[in-house]
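Help! Submission page says 'invalid entity' but I think these are all valid:
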Amino acid sequence: MAEATLFDEETGGAPSTPARRPRRAKPAGAAEDGCAPGENRRAGRTAEEMASRQREISVAEFFTKNRHLLGFDSPLKALLTAVKEAVDNSLDACEEAAILPEILVELSPVAENRFRMLVEDNGPGIVPEQIGKVFGKLLYGSKFHKLSQTRGQQGIGISAAGMYGQLTTGKPVRVVSRAGKRAKAYEYVLTLDTARNKEEIHSKSEIEWHRPHGTRVEIELEARYQKGLRSVDMYLKQTAIANPHLTLTYVDPGGEKVVYARSTNELPAETVEIKPHPHGVELGRLIAMLKETPSRSLGGFLQEEFVRVGAKVAKDICARAKLSEKAYPTRIAREEAAALHTAIQETKISAPPTTCISPIGEALVLAGLKKEIEADFYCASTRPPAVYRGNPFQVEVGIAYGKPGGVGLELTEEGRIQKRKAAQVTEELVGNADEPIRVLRFANRVPLLHQQAACAITKAVIQTNWKSYGLTQPRGALPIGPCAVLVHIASVWVPFTSESKEAIAGYEEILRELRLGLQECGRKLGTYIRKGKRLQSEYTKRSYIEKYIPHIGLALQEILDLTDQERDATVSTLDDVLQKSRKF
Amino acid sequence: MAEATLFDEETGGAPSTPARRPRRAKPAGAAEDGCAPGENRRAGRTAEEMASRQREISVAEFFTKNRHLLGFDSPLKALLTAVKEAVDNSLDACEEAAILPEILVELSPVAENRFRMLVEDNGPGIVPEQIGKVFGKLLYGSKFHKLSQTRGQQGIGISAAGMYGQLTTGKPVRVVSRAGKRAKAYEYVLTLDTARNKEEIHSKSEIEWHRPHGTRVEIELEARYQKGLRSVDMYLKQTAIANPHLTLTYVDPGGEKVVYARSTNELPAETVEIKPHPHGVELGRLIAMLKETPSRSLGGFLQEEFVRVGAKVAKDICARAKLSEKAYPTRIAREEAAALHTAIQETKISAPPTTCISPIGEALVLAGLKKEIEADFYCASTRPPAVYRGNPFQVEVGIAYGKPGGVGLELTEEGRIQKRKAAQVTEELVGNADEPIRVLRFANRVPLLHQQAACAITKAVIQTNWKSYGLTQPRGALPIGPCAVLVHIASVWVPFTSESKEAIAGYEEILRELRLGLQECGRKLGTYIRKGKRLQSEYTKRSYIEKYIPHIGLALQEILDLTDQERDATVSTLDDVLQKSRKF
């Protein structure tokens, strides 16, 4: 490396005296130091040698090496992620086809650290030509390019689960699907060619299947099964809470079967796909859209490609940008596009329609909480829709409160008779339950179990002042109390912090809505807790009266030499006076 | 939706009585319920309708919509990410070419919320044919497929920065590069076609350039500039600490120039590219390798495709797997491959060579800390290399301690004269400095500024018991004290938690090494702090003696009627006796 040092001293002058703006065509002289790579060094590579090593990376290779980005970092998490991707797809498909979903999830141990996952639905099925791509190609799907509320949005999930299974066990994915009663059922056995990110179909065959329509996917994978806060069991329970229209049958690796029956026969309100809102479109995207549009005039382009732009708004925008409404979109220059972009931002345009999102609704949030969590008090709030970066979204909050020892972890089993102990909600409870509250996070009805600390929902819960609602709260931490807080964000595009979709990114607009929702629901909780505290204090006072008045009666009897009758009358009068002096 | 309900009741039987193993060919009957999609519903789509909407998603479209995954979630972070990607590339290129790096970073405000970033290096340059792909295509590069320690590893970074610039400002990327003195310098102006993930070259021209070799990239982007813990300034300062062989000139948006001069003329030790270690290879990968290998025998395959497999180990593995060494790799069946995989795991194989990683080294960690952080005590430890999933890695820890008001944030300016106040390291200091320690995280010499809480380094610092080293530490939190802890992980493949490479995933092997390194360095700190405490207690005692002995002398003089001489002699004797009675 001694030569490198020499080299350094020779060229040292150039970068240590840079001009404020770099000199593009500095005359020679500085260039005379004469140390082109390839000359004055021992071990280094030349630009040509480096160029020969450059190559394209397949997206499947990328995610194989980075599979922790997709949620496959440990055998424990891999099992959850695989189930989640399959169930999310089943739910999306059923809802898109307007079918009330019935899903079977079955986990069977195959060997040590190896499980077979089977997920079967009564959805619309997949046409045979698409099966290979849907299960054997990353970044392929129907949900990425449209703006509507779906669980999946990336076109990665289920193929990634198959890829992980293949990587860890060498086994292919088995898919059975039937696209309607008049169609045939097919079984496909396939793997993913990672170097080309392309499906490899090992076999396809027509089979008999009892279902008139639906899809079944089987993946064998290296995994670990464990109950607890971040288990498949917990994911399925929470899925049942957030999807009251779902009937879910779950057979765990021990062969135990749980059925979560639906509590409503109504499908979530149908969502409408929307076009992008002008205020959420970046300049670069606008330029690309101008290039690609089939519209033949700028005015038409604005009205056709965006939501909430009518003739008047289009005219306003063009006028503000000093562009003709009749201009050819493809001929708009970059500077003109920039003016158009600025004009759009400055023009008042209605918020996007919110028919594209479907919240769970206060009534069903309450029903879900009551069905699965045993508590003494429930409340829920649904915020009006809001917008971030042009994307509509909506926040819902539900609270279950009051069960000694902390609520939220211990979800009741289906059908369990709930014994409410309303009288027990007292100051003592709040004091005793010394664990942080449970936060149940949902995005587009999907429970989020991992990366709690990194999630905007957790941040918003921490930023909320729970002391004013009767809970204790350490500085910068979750409040303490026997309480579970459910938070749901529904959006046409949920900004997750990673491909594994475990936490929501902290956009300011989203944090704000979350805080407002939590406050709304928190106030209801506060009213309840304060009432509980008042009742408790009443009860204490009353017990004092009941305890001491008779003794006072006896003492008075002795001092004043009263008859037993006179004594009882005095006690009764005293009692009345004291009870009345308390403010009910 | 009423029809959907009907449908549900009719098929309800099927999923509620699933067999332990699903029946693949259940005879009709159950299939007679007759509700194919398309019949019994109002609004749903059929499988055919859905199929028509399926399409491939370009990786560039994916990352445009998910740009927060790449670190471009806010204008503030975008600026840092763009600079980081460019500087990382420059450093990698210089080191690969064995050139002592000299880098210029210049940020110029262009408009409100818009900056021009310029990064220029004296690296080997890029051959013209590659410029388009390197800057205009995601998932393209030379570092992904090789196992060696580099800053970049994904082939995404710099193209993503350009893509973000293009998206937010509509402006193309400008690149100047010259691949050696005898080559010509070219200027390229290009953008990225997101729908196809392909470069679009707007212009290329031969230009005069003062540098004999190097690359300059200019990107205009929407951004916000701010000083502080997560600023470009901080990133560059920390880069200087971890790369003592780098000379870096930084012109900030205000036009202020800072030069970080190199403190060593030695390049980091050259790293050697290695083949994968057999113990880190999953079954699926093994099967793929068997298919792709040019080797014509299993024995040869094992020796040629893996590191640390010689003739004897290859023979052992084959024997254990009950396979012939002469078997054709491409003809190994899946079951045989599984046996091979198990045999590999059971065979003792030496750890991979560690010439593929180059730590900073204790001496240079110390030098870096001393140069940039003003403190009273410094120590550093470099752990021996270790392995996770077949990937060698190495952990280094450095500590700077003791400066009232908290060290770590206030890095000294280059050339600032450091005034040490060793005598001030006392109990008082530890007590007063009531802020958490600063954790400076590095991966392959790159500072990590974001997502501190999600990072394995932070977790390991929290898991370390700092009380035994003289710092206070709240439960489950960072210790408190005037202290900066530098932690560096060098590896051929750093497992980041997201594409933006801000935090390291918590693999158990990595956490373990981190804890050991922190303990090693912590013990040195503990010795120092305890010595400081002892010195302080000595000092207090001495000051008592000096304060009270003369008064005792005066009192004795009065009581015993001593002369001034006798008094002074007595005082001197007393002083001696007391000083001796203290244990030095």
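Support: the input was valid. A stray whitespace character was the problem, and the output above is from the cleaned input. The first strand of chain B starts at residue 55 and ends at 56.
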